[in-house]
Amino acid sequence: MTDVRHDATDLIGAPVELSVVIPMFNEEEALPALVARLRPVLDGTGETYEVVAVDDGSADRTAGQLEDLRAVWPQLRVVRLARNSGHQAALTAGLHHARGRYAASLDADLQDPPEKIPEMLALARSRRLDIVYGVRVNRATDTGFKRRTAGAYYWLVRRLVGSHVPAQAGDFRLLSRNVLDALRALPDQPQVYRLLVPWFGFPSGEVAYHRDARVAGDTKYPLRKMVLLAVDSVIGFSVAPLRLATWLGSLAFLVCLAVITYTLAVYAAGATTPGWTSLIIAVLFVGAVQLICLGVLGEYLGRVYTAVQQRPTYYVAEDTGTAAAPMAGIAWPGPRRGRDSTLDSLGGPAGP
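The line above is the sequence of Dolichol-phosphate mannosyltransferase; the predicted structure tokens follow.
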């Protein structure tokens, strides 16, 4: 099958120094404030740049506002997805289509300050870094519940995936062209970038910032999507859940041996109901063996399942930076959850 992703990135114009990738889903209320803060920052850098706004199937006036802005902001480029595909898929589309030597990813809600982008770029150049993470040092504007769940998320993934994952670093980061090319070269699979990017091991640094309140509109990342992100992170980068099934089966088997010993002793003492001994031994033994077998099979099945799911993560309906639109931009994912993913997968700021 032809890889249409590369056809989709035959872009018009010379390469730029900086791309700013912004996934958007129903951000009509936040968009004016975003432009008012972002454009002066980028114009003030003196660098050639592009802003890759990825419209993730918005149902409000986000797409129309972006088209209006293109008339007065030449550096604005709109990548419109054919349907709502989710935040990480929209981010993938933007990073795949970015043509800058560096690419910064930013959410449209302004909780991550665009004023830090020049600092990230300067740090990457001065220290020859390929990755610069935006690390949150203060989340006072978040609710107590959000702070606690985010803390639990980063504690869990660092324990399971490794301490190389920066604590409190979300999807606000700067990537060099080396990292962007490495991301494109990976086998097609679902991506959780806050875990995938550190996995490469490229030279990296950090820029600290205070997390602001959402500038306008409602959060696009409710508790349900936070839980799904945590599940994707653990399953996509660790076999711990599968091994847990194996350990549970082994524990059940040991408990089974202890209960067998007890039931035989009770039977020998004549203090049991006829037939109870053989029944409880059979149920416990078969259940323990089944859990062990399911755990072992799950180790292999989980890997095979993610490899054979070849549904497109995103489809580009229009890219204002390509020679001909619409063009297709397809990445191949693993499993999707729930009902039809168009209705069940909402884009938005990327979780904890």
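Note on the example: The two ends are 37 Å apart (CA to CA). The mean pLDDT is 76.
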